[in-house]
Amino acid sequence: MAELTQPEVVYSPRSLQLWRTLWNWLAFLFQIFLQILRALGHLPLLSSSSSSSNSFKPLPVVELLETDSSDTLEITAGPDSVPVDEPVKKLTVVLDLDETLVCAYETCSLPAILRNQATEAGLKWFELECVSSDKECEGKPKINYVTVFERPGLAEFLKQLSEFADLVLFTAGLEGYAKPLVDRIDTENLFSLRLYRPSTISTEYREHVKDLSCLSKDPCRTVIVDNNPFSFLLQPLNGIPCVPFTAGQPYDTQVTISKLQTLKMSSAILFVPLLTSIPSLFLFIYLFIFLWLYQLLDVLLPLLKHLSNQKDVRPVLYERFHMPEWFQKQGIPASGRT
Known about the structure:
- This protein has helices spanning 13-41, 112-120, 154-162, 175-185, 257-261, 265-269, 277-291, 295-307, 313-321, 323-329; strands at residues 91-95, 102-106, 125-135, 141-150, 165-170, 191-195, 222-226, 239-241.
- It is an alpha/beta fold.
- One of its GO terms (molecular function) is phosphatase activity.
């Protein structure tokens, strides 16, 4: 009796290509789905030096130093939040200007392609006449013409922030440049105090450092937001290092071309135009979630609102950013920050 044999299943090249295409699309959609889940779990886009965080880091990518238990930073703090019936001082928020609230360029040297890119992205901008510290040959003050781009959501951010915090502007820029600029973005005089370059100090490690002690404010209720973390090296526990803002990245989000390339889109989009409709919908949802998370309104404002309810902001900021360890990694010991 002849043995029964199982016939081999032979797939045509066309069928194999179709299966490969379906598999590529499924892998592509799965990667997008994972990115969305990560986004919902890590909405804050600010720097976090915690080793367990995978969120975006605007600071230089460094590994934290391993410290002995004897060197561990101790922060004395009361309850995490303030009881409802306990009065608390208003939060003081110190804001940097350039690359934090705005970005500015000399009009004569601003590339047309950069201006067009920012304009097409919907950035608000204006031109400004600034008095330079340089003198003309006749001894008259030199006038510089500057093009200023506002960070998305700037006006609304300042308005909402002023409802629960005292606002202080602290810039390393010269007053002849910064004062007329701030007059344009702060038409309602929301800043209770404006400080310029003469108010900064020089240290052994950096110049133009912003010493918060000059404000005579309670350090437990004072926060500084600056794209340059060295600005607050004297008070690292009070600093929030924000993502720098430039007209070259007008959408003010963490999504970049290199980020999209990590999804390996190019290898999937080349297959079967018939299948592009559904994946394109997922891609649109993915980009919509990320591209419209503005740094000021969607990231900084909720964090500052949370800090306004804390009796001491420093433990919260230390847990989130670990700035003392970051400065130590940059070669600035604790003695250099006092």
